[in-house]
Amino acid sequence: MRGRKPVRQKKWLTRRGGPGSAANSGFVGKLAVLGLGLAAMLLVAWFSGMLLLQQLGQSSFFQLTSIRIDGGVRTTKKEVLALSGLDVHSNLLALSVGTLRRRIEAHGWIESAEIRREWPSRLQITIKERRPLAILSLPDGLYYADRQGLPFAPAEPPEELDFPVVTGLGEVDAWSEEQRRALWRALHLIRLAGRGGVILPAQGISELNLAADGAVTLFLVSRPFPVYLGREPEVALSYNRLVRVLNWLYKERVFAETAAIRMDYLPGQVLVEKTSGG
Questions:
Q1: Going by C-beta distance under 8 Å and a sequence separation of 6 or more, which residues neighbour residue 90?
Q2: How far apart are CA 12 and CA 61, in angstroms?
């Protein structure tokens, strides 16, 4: 029998500079010290910067000397200035643009506010006001509504009240999904009428009543008979069809005899009801 070859035993040697060497441990230690030193320098720089900003924030060099306010029609410059909380002692560097914007936009008529610093001591405030599309009749009074149907400010004299009035709504938080969709359709119809149509302009709409099931009923300024629009989702189709019906009534001189217009009579058909004397 042949003898077995002796098994060579390998010796594991730690090379100089390997993972477990003293030299490598020293290098890691130096990196740690360097990192701590860099962190300390950054911390000192941050504190120094904060102290510098605090001192500059109290400096008279950045004290406000001029505040310009543009864009207001419903809101006066005095109102905007009062909302901002700024005065001659305010510092341009110390003020928070975000906080200032939120204060101004808290006003019901102000949709957005643009704030721009003009160094070293002037401030420009440009506001964009909401444009009312209709008036909502709510349990606690009349309110202007924007394009999204959100009430944003009370509608009271001597304010302008020449807008279509939307009725049938309860408290805002209690609006059903059907009522919200009906409100969107009513506002869409007002927008279409506001494009300058002669037969049915926005000024010719007196009221839009919203039922609990989402049905919309329109009343004209010239003659307060009901126009039952129903729940037709195609608002442009309803508007154009109503314009054609009104145009026909005017031409045939039977508008004064009309008692109601039913746009929800049958699909694609309109029923015009006449007064008993007509």
A1: 63, 64
A2: 72
Domains and CATH numbers, the chain: 60-129 (3.10.20.310), 134-274 (3.40.50.11690)
Bridge-partner residues for 208, per DSSP? 166, 218
Residue 243's SS3 state is helix
- Write out the chain's pLDDT in tens, 278 residues: 455 555 555 554 445 555 555 666 666 777 777 777 777 676 665 554 544 445 444 557 789 999 999 999 999 999 999 999 998 789 998 899 999 999 999 999 999 999 999 999 999 999 999 999 999 999 999 999 999 899 999 998 877 889 999 999 999 999 999 999 999 999 999 999 999 889 999 999 999 999 999 999 999 999 889 999 999 999 999 999 999 999 999 999 999 999 999 999 888 889 999 987 65
Q: What span, in angstroms and rounded, lies between the C-alpha atoms of 246 and 127?
A: 41
